[in-house]
Structure formats: structure tokens, C-alpha cells
Amino acid sequence: MGTFKIEGGIQLKGDVTPQGAKNEALQILCAVLLTPEKVTISNIPDIIDVNKLITLLRNLGVKIEKNAQGSYTFQADEVNVGYLETEAFKKEGGSLRGSIMIVGPLLARFGKGYIPKPGGDKIGRRRLDTHFEGFINLGAKFRYNREDHFYGVETEGKLKGAYMLLDEASVTGTANIVMAAVLAEGITTIYNAACEPYLQQLCKMMNAMGAKVSGIGSNLLTIEGVDSLGGCEHRILPDMIEIGSWIGLAAMTKSEITIKNVSWDNLGVIPNVFRKLGITLERRGDDIYIPAHLDGYEIKTDIDGSILTVADAPWPGFTPDLLSIVLVVATQSKGDVLIHQKMFESRLFFVDKLIDMGAKIMLCDPHRAVVMGHDFKSQLKATTMSSPDIRAGISLLIAALSAKGTSIIQNSEQIDRGYERIDERLRALGANIVREA
């Protein structure tokens, strides 16, 4: 288990370019299974979760060629569907949450798709019902081996287009169903579809491959099935979660940082939520400039003077992946804020580590926490802690960078799952961080 050793309390400065979006990459990589032709993808982040999926595709028989850093060409012309029923696949697929999205394209193209119960972050129950109910609506038969926790869908002929109203606006569920529907017979209509920018990217990519997806960017998608798809080239967007992490880091460490090429038009409400926390950020072309907050930052109240609430919601609402960042940033704000994590019941359980560092946080229940900011009058204290999931991990790293003394973050692999070379990039800004085996 790796660790990060961090000397906190150092002001940082410089430019940083965000990596490609993890959540888009996991969808886009699965979509290469839809065609036997070559698909070239650029701006792929070099992170554990994405690399695991690339390895899984290679083991499925996908030919993979690395063109340059972050750029690969994939060709799924000799897919070994039999690999899905091996013990090796059960172990490999179970270690990655994003592996669930191979099921849709495999079902559409080969008539079957299997997946072990996926792993990933320990942030509470993450149901798969939306995925499989969508496949069943398209005509697939569902099977589940309770003993092995192994899921499967099969169809004897082609899938049939259908109307469906999703029970939740699941991003991965919508992506999976759309990938299955693009090769189905007839028209599929998906209402209450997720509409995140990364899902929009997936739909645009498939249209470039010859699919017929309309309603992109809305919660009502219409897919006219086609017989086959071809190759294409696609570039992944910058990671909005990493961009939010850099904003929070700049504020907490009173650092002057410019985040380059952020794709402002795809950030939604993210900049405004940080502004509500009192953080100054400027749009300079397609960059975000954050000045050094030497006098701190003050949380804005609601119009009637009541405490600000920051809650997650399906896009275009605020992404749940940034609530951990907002929470840690609020620990040094002037003012109070209520953090309401609606989607996952265990994602706030890392606050005990921040409380150990001296933060004033009241955990109301598994979904809500009130943060009472120190206004930098009391610096967080360094400590030794472990990272429970990707987003909590980066939040603890931000806390450690602002704290007084030397902190140790164990289980650094959790952070590496979502953040590319984070220690190297922080050192380039002046941080004192060392990776230890």
C-alpha cells in the first residue's frame, strides 16, 4: 500500500492543465466494442481505473496500439466473447466499477454480455437495476448467479427498440442502454436519461460512427437503430472533477493558480458553486484564473440570510463527485454551510479524519454535514490518515497541503485511480509531497 508524505502550509503558484475526463473515458472505451473498425481516442487519462479497463479490453481480444501519451487506437474485430465466462474475467471485471458498461455494446453486437458484481469506491450501495431493466426492455433475457455474484443478459436475435422511462437518471445506466440501442431494430426512446457532458460526448462519438442518436443534451433521447457502426476519431473532454479539485486546492492553500483549457462551456454550475463559497475565479479565454486568497473567502448566505446549502443533483445540477471538495474547502471559510449528499449514503464518512485535523464539522446523518469555517484563524493540524475513496482521498490531500506539519496519506492508490501523476503535478506548483512505497 503506497503513501503520500505531505509537508503542509506551503503557498503554491503556477499553471496546471487538467487531465482527460475519467468518467468520459470509461464510457468511450467501452464503445469501441461496437465496431470491428479502428477507433482512435485522444486525451485518455493515465490513471488506474482507465488502465484497468484498457487491460480488460485487451484481454477480450481488442487490438490496442498506443500512438502517443494519452492517444490509442482500438480495433475490436476479433473479440473473444468466451473470455467473459472465465475465472480471470470474474476477478478482473469485479475490480472496476466502469466495467459494467461493456455489457451494452457486447449485448448489441454479440447477443450476450456478462459482468461480475463491480467494485470501485466504498461509498454505499450503487444499484445496477437501471442498466438491466433497460436491456430487458430491449428484449434481452436477464440471469443472475447469486453464488458467484455474476450478472448476464442474452438475446437470441437482434434487440428491439422500445420506449422506456428510467427509474433514475443514471449516467452509466443511460450510457449502457444507449450503446445497446444503437444496433437494435427500430426506434428506442429513453426518457429521464442522464444528460451529463460526458454522456453527450458518447452520443456524439457514436453518431460519428454512424449511429442515429437525437435529443443529445436533453433528458429525452431517441435512437434509431442501424445495422452496423464504423470507426472514428474522438477527443475526451478535460475532467471537470479535477478542475473543481484544483479550484479547491488553490483556495485552501491561498495559492495563485491558472487552470488551462478547462472547456468552460461544459462546466455547468461548478464555477458558480465555488463562487458561493466566496472563492474568486476569473474566466480568461478558456482558462480559469484563481488569485491567492490572502484574506480568505466568505460563504454567501441565501437571499433570506439562511445558511447556504450545497447539494448534489443530476446534471445540470451539481455533481456529487465534488461535494467532498466543497466540504474540505468550507473548513477554512468564513461562515457556515450545509453539505447535502443525496446520492450516496457513505460518502461523508471521511469527515472524522478532518475533525481529527481540527475542522469544525457536525455530521447530521449519513447524507448531511454542517461545516463551520475557521476563516484561517485556526490552521488544520497534520495527521496520518487513509483514503477511503477517490474523492475523499483528494479532499484529504487538499487538507494536508493546507495543514501545519507533515501528514501521511495511506492507500494512495485510491487517489491514483482518478488523478494522473498528482504528486508530480503538485511538485511542479511548489508543493512538498513525496510518494513512498
What's the short story on this structure?
By secondary structure, this protein is of the alpha+beta class.
Strand content: 15-25%
- Strands of the largest sheet, in order across it? 21-22-1-23
Number of strands: 23
Rg on CA atoms, Å: 22 Å
Give average pLDDT, whole number. Answer: 93
Secondary-structure-derived class: alpha+beta
Keywords summarizing the entry:
single chain; 437 residues; alpha+beta; 14 helices; 29% helix
What is the secondary structure topology, with strand pairs?
Layout: E1 3-7, E2 13-16, H1 22-31, E3 38-42, H2 48-59, E4 63-68, E5 71-75, H3 87-93, H4 103-110, E6 112-116, H5 129-137, E7 141-145, E8 150-154, E9 163-165, H6 171-181, E10 187-191, H7 197-208, E11 212-214, E12 220-224, E13 232-235, H8 240-252, E14 256-259, H9 270-276, E15 282-284, E16 287-290, E17 308-311, H10 323-330, E18 336-340, H11 351-356, E19 360-365, E20 368-372, E21 384-386, H12 390-402, E22 406-410, H13 413-416, H14 422-428, E23 432-436
Parallel strand pairs: 2-14, 3-13, 9-10, 17-18, 21-22
Antiparallel strand pairs: 1-22, 1-23, 3-5, 4-5, 6-8, 7-8, 10-12, 11-12, 14-16, 15-16, 18-20, 19-20
Helix pairs in contact: 1-2, 1-7, 4-6, 5-6, 6-7, 8-10, 8-12, 10-12
